[in-house]
């Protein structure tokens, strides 16, 4: 049988766990590699993208858990480095897992073991770092178990399905001194870094209102009505559902589309809010130890898709989030790419499909993934920033990954460290929690509880009961 034959299907058993016991596999990345320390925010390890040979002792052994689109994007970025070995890929969908293994073979000429159960991946002593690109309802368990297993971790956003899960992720990372980078790579994208620095400089004067938004494409918003179907032969659906409440299989709520169901995720507020509201929080605080909100309200519904649609998260949502001394307006709706909030009335700017806007007494700053702009109090553009490099390095993911790879040795604080990203994710969860509770919620940040509506904390964005067989570890 050819190597590709082994990877693609019938020969998968030959790469299973049975043969692993016969191998004396040892970690190849450790203190002996002599890699110099990297200061936070200075060296992201991008030099490792340069082609060349690296000794075995200098290579980091990694595994991918979750082989969907986001997982493969992350894996391809890791494989773009010269200091990476891909040891294993993991997914309850054998078809996706097989494709991931073929990609590793094509790009690195390496055979990655295919392992359906992520716990078997974490048991392996030859794996230094895992990529957690599972659906949102799996993020907490995989991340906590990775910390317990002593692995460095790249975990996708939002870090958790709900607030209580996020708290336990932070606690376990601290307990085990884990190196964790959250996949909010906008923090490693230069225009966001520059825009945040400008806002922090105080040049905008008093900022009492900020806006952040995301417009969803109509084709992606509609789930339609589907009947339950037989589970595809390649998918272990029971494992895919995992700790979430069990619902019969439907194609329109599995894989990518899980995002639009509160049982599995947080809708557009969890998916993009954690990017755009994070930028606002970075700008409005001098450090990433954010001051948290005191009140949150949110209204919306399925105004575009209508009630005859299986999605449970709103396609239209506006949240008002009150912080000490200022407010944030978060908006989600369905439309074309030019139907974002008109950033500055009377200015030449058009609507954008996503953005973060800081409105000050002296002017405003608008930033999105296309760049950033500064406007005076009248809405006129001023101090045009230097042109953004449109090459590959415009994507902050390589820099984000590079800092993590360096940090596995140096234990440096990650740019998207889990303690900071827990705060951003909690703000997103609070917006959804207020929507679910249909109430203005008063938030006690120190105790991490709602003080005026205790019943609100029974909703999915605050906590959930784990399905039998699964337990959220407490630290």
Automatic annotation (TrEMBL):
Domain called Gfo/Idh/MocA-like oxidoreductase bacterial type C-terminal: residue spans: 227-290
Gene Ontology terms, MF aspect: nucleotide binding
Domain (Gfo/Idh/MocA-like oxidoreductase N-terminal) ranges: 60-183
InterPro entries noted in UniProt: Gfo/Idh/MocA-like_OxRdtase_N, Gfo/Idh/MocA_oxidrdct_glycsds, Gfo/Idh/MocA_OxRdtase_bact_C, NAD(P)-bd_dom_sf
Name of the protein in its database record: Putative dehydrogenase
Organism: Armatimonas rosea
């Amino acid at each position: 049988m050819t190597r590709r034959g082994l990877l693609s299907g019938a020969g998968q058993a030959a790469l299973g766990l049975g043969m692993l016991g016969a191998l004396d596999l040892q970690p190849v990345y450790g203190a002996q590699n002599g890699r110099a320390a990297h200061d936070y925010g200075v060296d992201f390890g991008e030099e490792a993208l340069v082609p060349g040979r690296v000794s075995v002792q200098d290579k980091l052994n990694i595994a991918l858990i979750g082989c969907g689109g986001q997982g493969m994007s992350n894996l391809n970025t890791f494989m773009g480095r010269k200091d990476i070995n891909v040891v294993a890929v993991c997914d309850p969908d054998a078809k996706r897992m097989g494709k991931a293994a073929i990609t590793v073979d094509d790009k690195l000429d390496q055979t990655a073991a295919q392992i359906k159960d992520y716990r078997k991946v974490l048991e392996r002593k030859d794996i230094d770092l895992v990529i957690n690109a599972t659906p949102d309802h799996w993020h907490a368990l995989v991340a906590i178990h990775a910390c317990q297993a002593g692995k460095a971790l790249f975990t996708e956003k939002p870090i958790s399905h709900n607030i209580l899960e996020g708290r336990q992720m932070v606690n376990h990372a601290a307990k085990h001194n884990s190196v964790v980078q959250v996949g909010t790579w906008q923090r490693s994208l230069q225009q966001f870094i520059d825009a945040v620095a400008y806002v922090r400089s105080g040049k905008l004067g008093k900022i009492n209102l900020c806006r952040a938004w995301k417009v969803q494409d109509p084709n992606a918003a509609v789930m339609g009505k589907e009947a339950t179907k037989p589970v595809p032969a390649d998918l272990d659906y029971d494992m895919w559902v995992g700790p979430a409440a069990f619902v019969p299989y439907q194609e329109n709520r599995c894989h990518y589309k899980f995002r639009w169901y509160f049982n599995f995720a947080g809708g557009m507020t969890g998916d993009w809010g954690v990017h755009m509201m994070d930028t606002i929080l970075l700008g409005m605080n001098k450090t990433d130890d954010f001051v948290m909100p005191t009140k949150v309200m949110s209204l919306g519904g399925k105004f575009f898709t209508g009630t005859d649609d299986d999605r449970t998260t709103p396609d239209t949502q506006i949240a008002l989030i009150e912080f000490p001394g200022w407010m944030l307006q978060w908006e989600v709706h369905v439309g074309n790419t030019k139907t974002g909030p008109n950033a500055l009335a009377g200015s030449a700017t058009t609507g954008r499909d996503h953005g973060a806007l800081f409105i000050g007494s002296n002017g405003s700053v608008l930033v999105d993934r296309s760049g950033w702009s500064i406007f005076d109090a009248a809405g006129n553009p001023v101090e045009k920033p230097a042109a953004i490099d449109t090459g590959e390095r415009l994507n902050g993911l390589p820099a984000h990954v590079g800092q993590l790879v360096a940090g596995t040795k140096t234990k440096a604080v990650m740019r998207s460290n889990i303690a900071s990203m827990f705060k951003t994710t909690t703000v997103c969860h609070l917006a959804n929690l207020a929507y679910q509770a249909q109430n203005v919620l008063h938030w006690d940040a120190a105790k991490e509880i709602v003080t005026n509506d205790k019943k609100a904390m029974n909703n999915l964005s605050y906590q959930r009961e784990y399905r039998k067989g699964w337990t959220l570890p407490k630290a």
